[in-house]
Amino acid sequence: MIRIVQVGDGRIAKFNARPAFPEEAEKAAAEVLAAIRQDGDRAVRAYVAKFEGYKGTKLKVEVELEALEKTIDPKLVRAVKDAHRRVLRFSKASLRQAWTMKTPRGGSAGEFYSPMDRVGVYIPGGTAPLASTSVMTVTLAKAAGVKEIVACTPAGKTGEVNPVLLYALKLAGATEIYRVGGIQAIGMMAFGTKTCRKVQKIAGPGNAFVTAAKRQVYGYVAIDQVAGPSEIAVLTDGSVDVRWIAADLLSQAEHGSGWEKSLCVCTSEKLAKEIRAEVLRQTETLSRKALVQRVIDRDGILIVVAKGVAEGLEVVNAFAPEHFEIMTKDALKVMKGVRSAGAVFAGPWTPESAGDFVAGPSHVLPTGGAANMFNGLTPDDFRRRHSFVAFTQADLRETKPTIEAFAAVEGLDGHGRAATIRFE
């Protein structure tokens, strides 16, 4: 059922509540990860056979970019190249730059960055081979300057990885590709095996089991974020065609888990009813109708009626969506009030799918309300930040009393001596 409610209705808070870590996924992740830590490749192969159906022994995928390109529809090749070019351009432009400031007595301080040496990315391939995620993860690591980029993706019983997904991985810069999915992929990259050396960081989206595994290996490796089912919020004042609004709400409901969330906040009861009717009409036309219907049956699509755009914006900020479309007049002005959203799409000509596939920013974004504390994936997530200080003698002399005072109050006389001794 698609419900229409007013601001203040208790069902909004219920809709906003999304469990981050299902108990079933936590238990499964702990079991599989423990086995991989102990038995390495043997455990990885056993779980690939059990959960993915592939019983072969060769986990690494060997393929050449040029040969692969000849097997793919030229239209798809052009699409992948277009997306890669745009994402790479955005990624390079977004990289933070090193900076330096002068200290009061002639020294300097600042920050600089260095790329990680070896990272891992996870590419989902269960209900759909997400070739776009290859571009939206590996390209960022490459732009950051990472030399070794490991990619893992499930391949099913045949062990055959979707060729477009493979092509996107190779074009974006993946240096190693493995036909391994789920918890076992996270464990292999986090702990390392004879087949695959451990990485320093793991990025990329995944289902509840992958998310639980990423959370549990945090500390052995760095991770980008924890994420769950896809979600979208659309704020509209009636100035954008309801057909477009409905299509955008459905774009995230078709992902396949059944737990996706689509929130629409509009400014009149009449508009809400028109949007609901259009969502139901378009659902009947989709190839993944059954998957969308699961979302509808679980109350995963909600329409909220607000008194105006300002009140509606606060409803969306409370939801903290992965994707937020502002389909109103003066969308860029309204955007200034956004506080919690993974990515914002402003104006009628910016459907969320443009961000998913080609616009430039990565589509790896926080979900489940985590957008109020996490950011989406950026190239800087694959770099290390280093601060530096280069004092002159005069700088140290000027700050010596402060160093000695803190050392005394904290009982760390060795700290104080390290400054004092230089002037004895």
What can be said about this structure in brief?
With 424 residues, this protein is of the alpha/beta class. It has helices at residues 10-16, 23-39, 41-52, 65-69, 74-94, 131-144, 163-172, 182-191, 208-217, 242-253, 269-283, 289-297, 309-319, 331-335, 352-357, 393-409, 413-420, and strands at 3-6, 99-102, 108-115, 118-122, 148-152, 176-178, 201-203, 222-223, 231-236, 261-266, 301-305, 323-327, 343-346, 383-390. It has 3 domains: 3-17 and 228-359, Rossmann fold (3-Layer(aba) Sandwich), CATH 3.40.50.1980; 23-223, Nitrogenase molybdenum iron protein domain (Rossmann fold, 3-Layer(aba) Sandwich), CATH 3.40.50.1980; 391-423, no CATH class.
Write the layout of secondary structure elements.
Layout: E1 3-6, H1 10-16, H2 23-39, H3 41-52, H4 65-69, H5 74-94, E2 99-102, E3 108-115, E4 118-122, H6 131-144, E5 148-152, H7 163-172, E6 176-178, H8 182-191, E7 201-203, H9 208-217, E8 222-223, E9 231-236, H10 242-253, E10 261-266, H11 269-283, H12 289-297, E11 301-305, H13 309-319, E12 323-327, H14 331-335, E13 343-346, H15 352-357, E14 383-390, H16 393-409, H17 413-420
Parallel strand pairs: 1-11, 4-5, 4-7, 5-6, 7-8, 9-10, 9-12, 10-11, 12-13
Antiparallel strand pairs: 2-3, 3-14
